[in-house]
Design goal:
seven-stranded antiparallel beta sheet; globular
C-alpha cells in the first residue's frame, strides 16, 4: 500500500512539473532543460557579446527560452530563427521577407544548415543611443513586407521582466522579456580555443523571454528547431557565436564565412561548417503526466 508520504511526494513532483518559469533574466529555479552549449570562445568580446548556453520549456501555451551570456550595448543583434512548420527558407530570400530593422536585405543569400528551414525570427538588440534600451522585433520569414515589426522598446535591464505585446499585421506577439547583464564568467574571448563547457553551463544570467506559441507557428506537443546567432549592428557581420555552436578554432564569420566584411551575409553557408548551427527542442515530455498518473494510482490504492 502506498504511504501518505509517497502520495505527497508524487503531488510535489506534479506541482513542480506544472510551475511556470519566472522571466527575470536568470534561469535559476526555473526548471529549464539545457539544449545547447557553446563550443568556441567568442570573437565579439569576452563578457560583451557571448552566448554560453540555451535553455527552453514549453508550457501553458507559451515558449520559455533563455540564452545565457551577454549582448553588448552597441546595438549588436541576437537573432533567433525558428524552424517550426514544414518548408521554410533554408536560403534566405531577401525579397520575400519583412523589411523591419533592415535584416532581410542583409541576410539575402545566406544559407542555414540543410536540415533547417527558417519560418520565424526574433531580433534582440540593446544600446544607449536613446537611453539604455532593449528592443525586440518579430518577423515571419517568407512573409510580406509588413509581416514583421518592432514588438516594443523597454529599459535594458529590468530584473522583474517586461510584459510587451503588439499586433503585427494581424499576428498578436505577446511576450515577457528580461535581460540580466551581470555575467562576468562563462566562456573566454580567444576564438582559437574551444569553449569550456562547464564554465558555459555555470552561467545563469542573460536574455530570457516567453512568447505565445502561435506567434512562432509552434503546434503544441511538437518538436521544433532554433538557430541563435550574434550579428553586428547592421545585420551584416556575423560573429562566431552560434547555438548550436561552431567548432574551434573558429573566428567570426563576417559576411563571407571567412571573417571579411562584404556588406551582406550572402557568402555565408553554414553547411560548410562542422556540426549543426541549430538545436532541437523536442516535443514536451510526459514527466508531468507520469507524475499525475502515479498520484492518481496511488490514491486509488490507499
Amino acid at each position: 500500500m502506498q504511504t501518505k508520504t509517497t502520495v505527497m511526494a508524487l503531488g510535489a513532483m506534479a506541482a513542480g512539473a506544472m510551475a511556470q518559469p519566472v522571466v527575470d533574466g536568470s534561469i535559476s529555479g526555473d526548471g529549464y532543460t539545457n539544449y545547447a552549449v557553446q563550443t568556441v570562445e567568442t570573437g565579439f568580446g569576452d563578457n560583451q557579446s557571448e552566448l554560453n548556453a540555451a535553455y527552453a520549456r514549453v508550457q501553458g501555451g507559451r515558449l520559455y527560452l533563455a540564452i545565457t551570456g551577454n549582448l553588448e550595448g552597441n546595438f549588436n543583434k541576437l537573432n533567433i530563427f525558428f524552424d517550426t512548420v514544414a518548408g521554410g527558407q533554408t536560403v534566405i530570400d531577401g525579397g520575400s521577407n519583412p523589411t523591419n530593422d533592415g535584416w532581410a536585405s542583409k541576410y539575402n543569400g545566406m544559407s542555414f544548415d540543410s536540415a533547417f528551414g527558417a519560418d520565424y525570427m526574433l531580433i534582440f538588440r540593446r544600446g544607449f543611443g536613446t537611453g539604455d534600451q532593449f528592443d525586440v522585433d518579430w518577423a515571419k520569414v517568407g512573409g510580406g513586407a509588413a509581416d514583421g515589426g518592432l514588438v516594443a522598446s523597454v529599459p535594458s535591464q529590468t530584473p522583474g521582466g517586461n510584459a510587451i505585446s503588439n499586433n503585427i499585421n494581424g499576428q498578436l506577439v505577446d511576450m515577457v522579456v528580461a535581460y540580466d547583464n551581470s555575467n562576468i564568467a562563462g566562456i573566454g574571448g580567444d576564438s582559437s580555443l574551444a569553449a569550456d563547457n562547464a564554465a558555459a553551463l555555470a552561467v545563469t544570467t542573460g536574455i530570457e523571454f516567453s512568447i505565445n506559441l502561435d506567434a512562432l507557428g509552434i503546434t503544441p506537443g511538437t518538436s521544433f528547431k532554433v538557430s541563435a546567432m550574434v550579428n553586428g549592428s547592421n545585420h551584416d557581420y556575423l560573429s562566431n557565436q552560434f547555438l548550436g555552436g561552431l567548432i574551434a578554432p573558429q573566428g567570426n564569420l563576417g559576411g563571407d564565412g571567412a571573417g571579411n566584411f562584404t556588406g551582406s551575409l550572402s557568402g555565408v553557408n553554414l553547411n560548410q561548417f562542422a556540426g549543426d548551427q541549430y538545436f532541437v527542442v523536442p516535443a514536451p515530455g510526459a514527466a508531468g503526466l507520469v507524475a499525475l498518473g502515479g498520484l492518481a494510482a496511488a490514491r486509488r490504492r490507499r
